[in-house]
Design goal:
Elements (H helix, E strand, L loop, with lengths): L1 E6 L30 E11 L7 E11 L3 H7 L5 E4 L2 E11 L7 E13 L2 E5 L5 E6 L4 H8 L10 H5 L4 E14 L2 E11 L2 H4 L9 E8 L8 E8 L29 E2 L3 E2 L1 E2 L2 E2 L23 E10 L5 E14 L4 E17 L7 E12 L5 E10 L5
């Protein structure tokens, strides 16, 4: 049950299992960007705890890696803007499952996922295209330990790190409830996203930000085999910061607001190669007209619907529809509320006479006044197994 992998590999929906074909993806690590090369030890599937007779199981992982977008960042930013190089990566998770569906058709899952950017160097791009090193973050063994067990930064880090934690830390609490009724399967889940200890320990905006979802698997229904609905909100972020202050200026008060999801004053944003590493309904820096490495709009409310079916033994389809409203950030709000509609329509043909072969055609449509209008298509021919 324990595996070790080295390299860049897609791992969508871990540790909280979501329908990878229909879901919009996780908020911390979604399917939206090139995976980070890493060394990763994990228990991929739930492993029963000995002595619990199948009523308690767990899974989890620990990983260290490195971002590979040094060249992209340097080329993307404009003179006068900052970028980072040689940034390191860490993530870990632990999920527990209570229940034994062979004896009771109900299961409860809960656990924690945490990830971070640490180490690396920050640069300023100059007018002549050259760069100036302005900050070196620690990348020694102590930095690896602080990424695993979040701690305040030392004297070799900026003051903001010394009163918070070293590096860009983020994560989510994950919950799921599974109910089995004959051949019907119902799954409800919640991902509570956080960027600091106040949201991590549910002190502010307890139910305001996060993703909720419902998945239904239909029995003996060829037109609709599975359906997923998800609601996403990142609009609250522990509320706006009502006045300017510096960390620790008022030690007698606890001030937590304007968490500025996915953005960081050293690392720019929670992104890789310009694409957001979290949920794709929050577009990453690659879409920024000003070429800044940050999320232009992280205050979002969205609905997502995914439906799949298998009308015949050879034909299948998938449909994804998302609608998002954007407000920008607390610091730089958009000039008006902006809206974006995105959709995907895909049909797949798997002929019985050509074992292992399949072909699919997909159409993607974007319409709205945030990212604008675009249309794309894809034709895929796939062979699995031995080619000859």
């Amino acid at each position: 049950m324990l595996t070790l992998s080295i390299g860049s590999k897609e791992r969508p929906g871990f540790p909280l299992t979501k329908n990878t074909a229909l879901s919009s993806g996780m908020m911390v690590e979604g399917p939206n960007t090139q995976p980070i090369p890493q060394i990763r030890g994990e228990i991929k599937e739930f492993l029963n705890v000995p002595g619990t007779k199948g009523w308690l199981a767990f899974k989890g992982h620990i990983a260290y890696g490195s971002f590979t977008d040094n060249g992209w960042q340097k080329d993307f930013v404009q003179p006068g803007q900052y970028f980072t190089k040689d940034v390191l990566y860490h993530s870990k998770s632990l999920m527990l499952r209570l229940g034994n569906k062979e004896k009771l058709p109900l299961e409860f899952e809960f656990g924690l996922l945490m990830a971070s950017q640490f180490g690396g160097d920050q640069y300023l791009k100059l007018e002549d295209g050259s760069t100036e090193n302005v900050l070196d973050m620690p990348d020694n063994l102590k930095a690896y330990w602080k990424a695993f067990f979040p701690q305040t930064g030392g004297s070799d880090t900026p003051e903001g790190e010394q009163v918070n934690v070293e590096g860009n830390m983020l994560g989510s609490w994950n919950f799921a409830l599974n109910y089995y009724l004959g051949q019907w399967e119902f799954r409800a889940y919640l991902e509570h996203y956080f960027e600091d200890t106040s949201q991590m320990f549910w002190e502010y905006g307890r139910w305001k930000d996060g993703q909720i979802g419902l998945e239904i698997t239909f029995p003996k229904n060829r037109w609709i085999t599975s359906a997923v609905w998800e609601g996403l909100c990142t609009k609250d972020q522990a509320g706006p910061l009502l006045f300017d202050s510096f960390w620790g200026q008022f030690p007698e008060y606890q001030i937590s607001a304007d968490d500025n999801y996915y953005n960081h004053y050293i690392y720019g944003g929670w992104q890789h190669q310009g694409m957001g590493m979290g949920n794709p309904l929050l577009p990453g820096p690659a879409y920024n007209a000003d070429h800044s490495i940050s999320f232009r709009s992280n205050r979002v409310r969205a609905h997502h619907l995914g439906i799949s079916g298998q009308p015949s033994s050879e034909w299948g389809y998938r449909m994804l529809i998302s609608f998002a409203r954007h407000w920008g950030t607390y610091d730089i709000p958009l000039d008006q509320q902006r809206k974006q509609f995105s959709s995907l329509y895909e049909a797949t043909y798997t002929p019985k006479w050509a074992k292992g072969w399949s072909a699919s055609a997909a159409l993607g449509l974007d319409r709205g006044n945030y990212l604008g209008n675009s249309t794309g298509g894809m034709l895929t021919i796939r062979k699995t197994g031995v080619i000859f």
